[in-house]
Write a structure and sequence with these properties.
The complex is a heterodimer. Chain A is α+β, with helices and mostly antiparallel strands. Chain A is built from 8 helices and 18 strands. Helix content of chain B is 37%, strand content 21%. Chain B has 11 helices and 14 strands. In chain B, the strands form 3 sheets. Chain B has a 7-stranded mixed sheet, sandwiched between helices. The chains are: A alpha+beta, B alpha/beta.
């Protein structure tokens, strides 16, 4: 089917003027074709014999479609012959058109369409093109972006390609999922007046963490069932408090080095041990023994100002203490039998515990005792 | 402010320049007593004298060569070619002498050469050409091509004031067909493009008489917003305005009345292809006169020149792409 004009892309066969076997001269009319505007005779591209008519009258086909085959003159005298040429195909008059208007193409996109799609987060394969032959036009991309825009004005988000989690993140993920699956994790919170803790840590020149850690270790001596492992049915209460301290490694993850026999250390000793372990954790120079055998863990994210969390148990331990931000708050204090409102540094301590190993009263009792100790440190 | 034709606006610019600047003089064939082939200089010799409005022999090379000499000694000559086509005879003086004088000898050549150009008036192959691209290709020359009466006066005064040699294309078809408000006295039009019709779906870039054809074509298209950018000056070419229009509209039709190959519009299309690529939502479409001499026969001339219908159809075709 020849292209009947620069903008005409298809033609409809009206009539065949020659039949298979007929001899035709070059440029002799073979058939009549109608475009949406005009009817045209289609000339033979060469002299020869018509071999086959491939489409029926009334059929509409795209320009370039082969509608008939013929063999050229010389070979027509010695049929059969390999010299068949296609009528109306690549060798037909269409191929001689000097200039052709650019074609639309649904699969290929113009520069501005690709740029806008990237800027606006439009997935082009989801856009119905309104241009020629289904081509996606600039206005289609803009309309798609408009349509997918949420009330907040954000365009549809197209995420970047997924990567793989690091080995450390995979390990952490497996651990916390197993912990949540195995344990019956419950979290209890208590609010503690940190006036004494603040005074103590200033006196010693340390952070609040070793002060709280020392008080926790001392309190665990009275609440040994929290300094324990539960692995399946196997329940182990420890004499030593091997105190795990969660250390963030930023985006890489989290590691929990262990201060062994923490009950043997005072506040300053704990401060030194924690600083040493945390520093080497961040430097990546901990030995495998230094992250094993923890019996109780403290996590300390409060430095960023959060006030409550539900920590995941560090298996097979049955409890973890969470220290949140120390915030100055108005609190009711009783002095000489009279209640007044005072400004005090207050911290929320959270204890996640395993309901399989113990009950809420025990955990609450521990938190109350820890508060008494922290409010009385001196 | 009074309403003048495009031709009257050019005459007015010459009169203002002759009055305000003693260095200005006019040179041309029959521009004195006869008033010029198109009567642009009618009355000026009577008003300013034969030593300032100067009839020359029939030698375009002598006109431009003499003007270059006058410019070197401090005058501001304005030359008239009877028809733009005849400037070919002065090509050497313009391209090899005037355009290179500053670079070769450090001398300014502030001359203006007025070219009554363009077709549509059944002038045939020697009286219808648009030779702007010849001079765009020659470094050292400026090329102006106003489309309105206002810009014709403002750009001619800007050309006379400019220290460079300026080719000034005044379109014969517009001489008496286009009119508009023109302020009295001196003013200059910036050497930059001008948006003469707003729209965001497609921009037609044109200059000279084709601006009016583009405007008529744009008016005929109700279904989309068609912008028309009038280049006004081809050297300097307002590249920023062209690329801004492409960024806004994403589809471009560039129109030349000149022959297709290497026309001013080819330079515009090339600029867009290189620097506006990321903004395009379709091919840069050009509409121009085929690479053939302009026929005498009105019917054939109409078929050759890019008329309103061809521009409109090109716009519709591209809008549908």
């Amino acid at each position: 089917m020849p292209q009947l004009g620069i903008t005409v892309t298809e033609g409809t066969l009206i009539a065949w003027r020659r039949q298979p076997g007929d001899l035709v001269a070059r440029d002799e009319a073979i058939c009549d074709v109608s475009s949406d505007k005009v009817d045209t005779e289609i000339p033979a591209p060469a002299a020869g014999r018509i071999l086959e008519l491939l489409i029926e009258v009334g059929t509409t086909v795209d320009a370039g479609t082969v509608i008939a085959t013929m063999e050229e003159e010389e070979s027509a005298l010695r049929a059969p012959s390999p010299g068949a040429v296609a009528v109306g195909g690549e060798d037909g008059p269409a191929a001689r058109a000097p200039r052709e208007a650019p074609r639309g193409d649904a699969e290929r996109h113009s520069p501005v369409v690709m740029r806008l799609a990237a800027e606006l987060g439009v997935a082009l394969e989801t856009v119905a093109g309104s241009g020629r032959d289904g081509r996606v036009r600039r206005e289609d991309v803009l309309a798609a972006a408009q349509g997918s825009t949420t009330a907040s004005g954000a365009a549809l988000y197209v995420p970047p390609a997924a990567g793989r989690l690091s080995r450390m993140r995979q390990t952490i993920g497996e651990h916390v999922k197993r912990s949540l699956r195995e344990s019956a994790t419950v979290t209890s919170w208590i609010e503690v007046d940190f006036s004494a803790v603040e005074a103590r840590r200033r006196a010693l020149g340390v952070t609040a963490l070793p002060v709280v850690a020392a008080a926790t270790v001392a309190t665990l001596a009275e609440f040994g069932e929290l300094n324990a492992w539960l692995d399946g049915d196997a329940y182990t209460v420890h004499h030593d408090v091997n105190l795990g301290i969660a250390v963030s490694l930023g985006a890489d993850g989290l590691i929990v080095p262990v201060v062994r026999a923490a009950q043997a250390l005072d506040v300053e000793g704990l401060a030194a041990a924690i600083a040493d372990l945390a520093g080497r954790a961040r430097a990546g120079s901990l030995s495998p023994d230094e992250v094993r055998d923890g019996t109780f863990t403290i996590t300390n994210p409060g430095q960023f100002g959060t006030f409550m969390a539900t920590p995941v148990l560090n298996q097979p331990q049955v409890a973890i203490l969470d220290i949140e931000a120390i915030v100055r708050r108005p609190v009711v204090v009783t002095e000489g039998g009279a209640e007044t409102i005072a400004i005090r540094p207050v911290c929320v301590l959270g204890l996640s515990w395993d309901h399989r190993a113990l009950d809420g009263a025990y955990a609450a009792h521990f938190l109350g005792a820890l508060r008494e100790r922290l409010q009385g440190v001196g | 402010m009074s309403e003048l034709t495009y031709l009257e606006a050019i005459s007015d610019a010459l009169r203002v320049a002759l009055r305000e600047d003693d260095r200005v003089l006019l040179l041309g064939e029959d521009i004195g007593a006869f008033g010029g082939a198109f009567k642009v200089t009618a009355g000026l010799q009577q008003e300013f004298g034969a030593d300032r409005v100067f009839d020359t022999p029939i030698s375009e090379e002598a006109i431009v060569g003499g003007a270059v000499g006058a410019a070197i000694v401090g005058m501001r000559p304005v030359c008239e070619m009877q028809f733009a086509d005849f400037v070919a005879c002065a090509f050497d003086q313009l391209v090899n002498v005037a355009g290179k004088l500053h670079w070769r000898a450090g001398l300014a050549a502030p001359i203006v050469v007025r070219l009554p150009c363009g077709g549509g008036v059944s002038g045939g192959p020697y009286h219808s050409q648009n030779p702007e691209a010849w001079f765009m290709h020659a470094p050292g020359l400026k090329v102006f091509a106003p489309s309105s009466a206002y810009d014709a006066k403002g750009l001619l005064l800007a050309a006379i004031a400019d220290p460079n040699p300026v080719i000034f294309l005044e379109h014969k078809y517009l001489y008496r067909r286009v009119r508009g408000e023109v302020p009295p006295g001196a003013y200059t039009t910036p050497q930059s493009a001008n948006t003469v019709r707003d729209g965001d779906d497609l921009v037609v870039i044109a200059y000279g008489a084709m601006v009016h054809a583009a405007l008529a074509a744009a008016e005929a298209i109700d279904e989309a917003g068609v912008r028309v950018l009038d280049l006004r000056t081809l050297v300097p070419l307002d590249e920023r305005a062209i690329l801004d229009a492409v960024r806004d509209c994403a589809k471009v039709v560039v129109v030349d009345e000149a022959n297709y190959t290497c026309a001013a519009g080819a330079q515009v299309a090339s600029l867009i292809a290189q620097y506006g690529y990321g903004d395009l939502d379709g091919p840069v479409v050009r509409v121009a006169t085929p690479d053939a001499p302009i026929p005498f026969a009105p019917s054939l001339e109409r078929a050759a020149l890019p008329g309103v219908e061809r521009i409109r159809d090109a716009c519709r075709e591209l809008l549908a792409y």
